Amino acid sequence: MSVKAYDLTGRTAFVTGAASGIGRATAALLAEAGATVHGADRDTQGLHETATLIKQHGGTAHIHTVDVADRGQVTDAVATAVATSGRLDIMAAVAGIMHSSPVLETRDEDLDRVWSVNFKGVLYACQEAARTMIASGTRGSIVTMASGAVDTGGPGLLCYGAAKAAVVQLTKTLANEVGRHGIRVNAVAPGWIRTPMTTRHDESAQAHTESLMVRMAPLGRVGESEDVAHAVLHLASDASAFTTGQILRPNGGVAMPW
Ligand SMILES: NC(=O)c1ccc[n+]([C@@H]2O[C@H](COP(=O)([O-])OP(=O)(O)OC[C@H]3O[C@@H](n4cnc5c(N)ncnc54)[C@H](O)[C@@H]3O)[C@@H](O)[C@H]2O)c1
Hints:
The chain is built from 7 helices and 9 strands; from the N terminus they run βαβαβαβαβαββαβαβ.
């Protein structure tokens, strides 16, 4: 083993949620490690910005405008990526949405929307990736995006946390089912990370959360998208060749405190 295990030259990665935050940082880092990156998102403008970023650093990027909650769109985009690049080695299923509502105020439409994007969207990406890898005999890596919310019963996080808990279940079950094909499946469960998802709130709530994180985290700072992207790179690369069905928690040493 050497640091060359992190080299992704010649590999193709498909990254959902690549238009923003953690997905953008992941797409950029995998490209920097040498992979050809296919970024998928419903935000076309954001995808263009990510592709520009990758190309400015000498990487190769393709973009796909996709609603991950639509199985047909995911199937078509993965097929297009494979037709374009000839292979699929890495799937990073990062796209997701936040939703917060107390249990007693949670409506069917909240549950359905969050489940569709945060669970079904990951499931479709995993299924397409695993089918493609099995058919081509590729010993690939699939990385899902869970959350520290699966470790807590944070107020308001019923829909979000339940969907992320289902992502963890999917990760472990799929890892068992495809391991004999040499395909690895792992989850990343970040703590609070400063991204557009977490900075859309009002400024005082934002400042309160950040100061809470700084006080509670043994590492004494909030997380950045790049912290999570490095966890994805580890799981996507041969550096984690004997790791599957696991949850990696980049969270500064603390689970989500609320
Ligand atoms: N930021 C955090 O603190 C944190 C913590 C734990 C887990 N996560 C997870 O990390 C992932 C990325 O979050 P982020 O913080 O970078 O958020 P973000 O809002 O910056 O990025 C999410 C991306 O997903 C895309 N997306 C949303 N719904 C989509 C859909 N239906 N189809 C296609 N694309 C869609 C958005 O357009 C956006 O580009 C999410 O799954 C989130 O749940 C984030």
